[in-house]
């Protein structure tokens, strides 16, 4: 087996692992509000989302084209395909860290940041098409959540003025409507995020000389990427689902229906235009907009933490991608193997810590906080200062208690 073929195989496998983490990291985008309002049971929610993610991933390839031959200079990338693997490693680690804390950061921006950092280190700044990055990634990331939030706010206001959401019959209608709208979000998520891994695998095949530049993803790439994100979605991502469904704003069925419908329209429109934006940003913007439209109390401290995670995701993943790129590209096969070992050990450590305070389908709605580290796990030197000054706080958590909703 040649070195190039080995690296391409490593990239394909790692890309599918990233796609799996994308699925469980972003499953909350489609189903958090429906699970919180009781429109779907947790297990049925992730099953429906998983199936529709797979279907959605097979419907379009516009976003995949943006990544495979829009963001980077193919000729420079062909000189060092290991950089693609390095970028994926950075994205996977960032996804796992934010999942541990229950933060709905952008898997898409983690991917883009990891790839950009890796390409800059290995091929220089000229390896990145910065105009495409700004027009297809940065600007949509700023505009789309605001548009989705505004649409959700207006839709929520209209729902409460035209209908009678407090009536039991109306509640039943909205809850059934949520089943449809949440399913559409899952389908739209597949058309957007499912394609990103297709683009990365295609980029690796082009870099290795196994595919012509500018061509569409192969059928097996489309199928495997769709299956990977579907399996990841079915695994749950319960920690982030708790944050989006309970920790940000109290949601009733009319709000959930409005938020999900707004998210669907924004995601599908963006996918059609080839914008590689974050479905997490859109869905979170819609949830906030529905809370504002309803006049429900928003946990702005939680929203602030999420906003901070959004801001630092791309540069932090870029730094990790740059580091892993330096090791993998300069170290050759040995460097690539070293990065694989680092990735596996880091992932196991994060998963082990998450299992200490497990969130799953049975307790996802039991609380609005995600526990990461209890006080007695912080060591004998940890005082009240390490708990943020809260003397009575029983745990260090990723989310604060949200306040009671205001009718």
Please give a structural write-up.
By secondary structure, this protein is mainly α. The chain has one domain. Helix content is about 70%, strand content about 0%. The chain contains 13 helices and 2 strands. A two-stranded antiparallel sheet has the order 1-2. The longest helix has about 55 residues, at about 300-355. It is globular and about 65 Å long. The chain starts with a helix and ends in a 10-residue tail after the last strand. The relative contact order is 0.20. Residues about 380-405 have low confidence and may be disordered. Pfam families: PHO4. Belongs to the inorganic phosphate transporter (PiT) (TC 2.A.20) family. It is a multi-pass membrane protein. It comes from Actinomyces bowdenii. This is Phosphate transporter.
Write the layout of secondary structure elements.
Blueprint (H helix, E strand, L loop, with lengths): L2 H35 L4 H16 L4 H8 L4 H4 L4 H19 L6 H17 L6 H33 L5 H40 L11 H16 L3 H10 L5 H21 L5 H16 L5 H57 L14 E4 L20 E3 L10
Antiparallel strand pairs: 1-2
InterPro entries: Phos_transporter
Family: Belongs to the inorganic phosphate transporter (PiT) (TC 2.A.20) family.
GO cellular component, one term: membrane
């Amino acid at each position: 087996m040649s070195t190039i073929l080995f690296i391409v195989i490593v990239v394909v496998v790692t890309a599918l692992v990233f796609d799996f983490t994308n699925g469980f990291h972003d499953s909350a985008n489609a189903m958090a509000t429906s699970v919180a309002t009781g429109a779907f049971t947790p297990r049925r929610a992730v099953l429906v989302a998983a199936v529709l993610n797979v279907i959605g991933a097979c419907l379009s390839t516009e976003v995949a084209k943006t990544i495979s031959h829009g963001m980077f200079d193919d000729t420079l990338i062909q000189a060092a395909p290991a950089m693609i693997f390095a970028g994926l490693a950075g994205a996977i680690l960032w996804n796992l860290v934010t999942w541990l804390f229950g933060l709905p950061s952008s898997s898409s921006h983690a991917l883009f940041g990891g790839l950009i950092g890796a390409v800059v280190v290995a091929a220089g700044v000229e390896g990145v098409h910065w105009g495409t990055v700004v027009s297809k990634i940065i600007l949509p990331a700023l505009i789309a959540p605001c548009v989705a939030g505004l649409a959700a706010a207006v839709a929520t206001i209209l729902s409460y003025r035209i209908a009678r959401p407090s009536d039991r019959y109306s509640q039943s209608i909205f809850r059934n409507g949520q089943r449809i709208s949440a399913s559409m979000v899952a389908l739209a998520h597949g058309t957007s995020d499912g394609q990103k891994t297709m683009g990365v695998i295609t980029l690796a095949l082009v870099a290795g000389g196994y595919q012509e530049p500018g061509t569409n993803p192969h059928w097996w790439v489309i199928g495997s990427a769709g299956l990977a994100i579907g399996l990841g979605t079915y695994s749950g991502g319960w920690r982030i689902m708790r944050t989006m469904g309970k920790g940000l704003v109290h949601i009733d069925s009319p709000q959930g229906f409005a938020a999900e419908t707004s998210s669907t329209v924004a995601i599908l429109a963006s996918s059609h235009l080839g914008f590689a934006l974050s479905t997490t940003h859109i869905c979170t913007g819609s949830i906030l907009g529905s809370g504002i439209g309803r006049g429900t109390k928003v946990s702005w401290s939680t929203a602030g933490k999420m906003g901070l995670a959004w801001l630092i995701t791309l540069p932090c993943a870029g730094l990790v991608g740059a580091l892993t790129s330096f090791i993998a590209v300069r170290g050759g096969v040995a460097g690539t193997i070293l990065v694989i070992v680092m990735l596996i050990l880091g992932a196991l450590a994060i998963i082990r810590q998450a299992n200490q305070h497990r969130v799953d389908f049975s307790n996802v709605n039991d609380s609005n906080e995600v526990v990461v580290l209890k006080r007695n796990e912080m060591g004998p030197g940890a005082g009240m200062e390490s708990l943020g000054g809260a003397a009575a706080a029983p745990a260090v958590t990723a989310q604060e208690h949200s306040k009671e909703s205001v009718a």
